Amino acid sequence: MDYVKAATDTGSETFIPIADRVATFDNDGTLWSEQPLYFQFFYAVDQIKAMAPKHPEWKTTQPYKALLENNMPELMKQGEKALLQIVATTHSGMTTDEFDTSVRQWIDTAKHPVKKKLYKDLVYQPMLELVKYLQANNFKVFIVSGGGIDFMRAWAEDVYGIPKDQIIGSSIKSKFDYNNGNPVIVKLPELEFNDDKDGKPVGIQRFIGRKPVFAAGNSDGDLQMLQWTASNKLKNFELYVHHTDSVREWAYDRKSHIGTLDKGLDEAIAKKWAIADMKNDWKVIYPSDK
Amino acid sequence: MDYVKAATDTGSETFIPIADRVATFDNDGTLWSEQPLYFQFFYAVDQIKAMAPKHPEWKTTQPYKALLENNMPELMKQGEKALLQIVATTHSGMTTDEFDTSVRQWIDTAKHPVKKKLYKDLVYQPMLELVKYLQANNFKVFIVSGGGIDFMRAWAEDVYGIPKDQIIGSSIKSKFDYNNGNPVIVKLPELEFNDDKDGKPVGIQRFIGRKPVFAAGNSDGDLQMLQWTASNKLKNFELYVHHTDSVREWAYDRKSHIGTLDKGLDEAIAKKWAIADMKNDWKVIYPSDK
User: Does A140 lie in the same domain as A18?
Assistant: First the structure.
């Protein structure tokens, strides 16, 4: 609140013109949970299961076999190429409208295997409040996530109150098809942009064209975004969400298989960036805890 | 005005919720002039001339030789590869900040060889008014141009009143460099995205994530954007600017080497899209004509 006051007080030397009030938030692990696997991967798993009756060959073909048998150790053993195959199968070969409809149906009904809640209810109440608070002070809030841009846009506008065009993420290629006067855009099985690590400042420059004055993340994948923000000549604020609550959420950092926070934690401490200790700083984690 | 009234009247069956009021404008030939060459190419020419003293070898090397000798026929004979080389020389190998500074200096001082006015004064007054009118009615206005995204963002925010993150264009690749704690983004000599023709709806989907309800262009390069907009189930409006004024601006359409309007003109007539006849419909072309 001190930062926002210093940024918005027209009499202050640290006043920031409205056009420069750009705030960027990571999504997985920063705005909603990401354990035991990125939620977008659960979407892919659910889609494979729904598609399986039309693909009897998957019963004997990896990586589908392992997935359909819920054999996660075997699935992980298949490696990154197999995971990309699952993503390609579930995220391409359809129009953007069809994909959007599919994600919307899933987000409205699918429940997290551990928390037994809708995925969209596993968002962080303090971060929702932070987004709203910044917006109320004329900050333009963006999501800058390694997650899929089309996946997030299907639900994040409603859930976070952030417009679709302010949601940036990883993407696969797509093509326009005039389709005899009923034009569609078709999603292709080829990576276009990986919005993680070095990719985050690059994505910010490409989509926003302006260096943020505020950035929030939770992992080493967000470090470059925070470094980029910290290099702003205008007064800036860097925040790391630290997952310290093994009871209400999950506790993990330096050695986690997802959302590793190691170099980032060292740099945050060295540079005195803000660190939100979920266990001790947050009265409420999820909106339903209120 | 009938369209905007129908779109914003809450009692109307054609009412459009604010979040869906997306308007996309081409830039070259739609918001400012583009003859006898795209203005961004004049920028490249001016940069080559400024850089020439440090590159004595250019006096004898094509395509630089032709350019430095103002030998346009010879330069054109060098073909597309040579033009791309000139663009790469002047648009990459520097940081995004350095490029931005260079374009700003140019746009504030460089004059058009025929009109003898600043390039930024060769914008269309009626289109400026249209952009403002849509914005005043809660339309979110975007530029979707084949021109360079970083080139436009250096000046278009000020000149058109359209925020940088709502300016979409063609791009070259870039990379993040931590640079010992003074991070920069460096522009690389490799095409990333061509925001023209089929690329326009693809760019709209990638950057905006929502189909427009309003689109304006002036050439066949905008046709797919207008087709995409026309396929919106919400009430939509398509506009072609037709260059018909050889005295106050330029007159060209079906056979022009730049901004060709041929198939688009046929389709506009067949589908009764709006066509702005610059000679007969516009009292004023440039702001200085007022």
Answer: yes
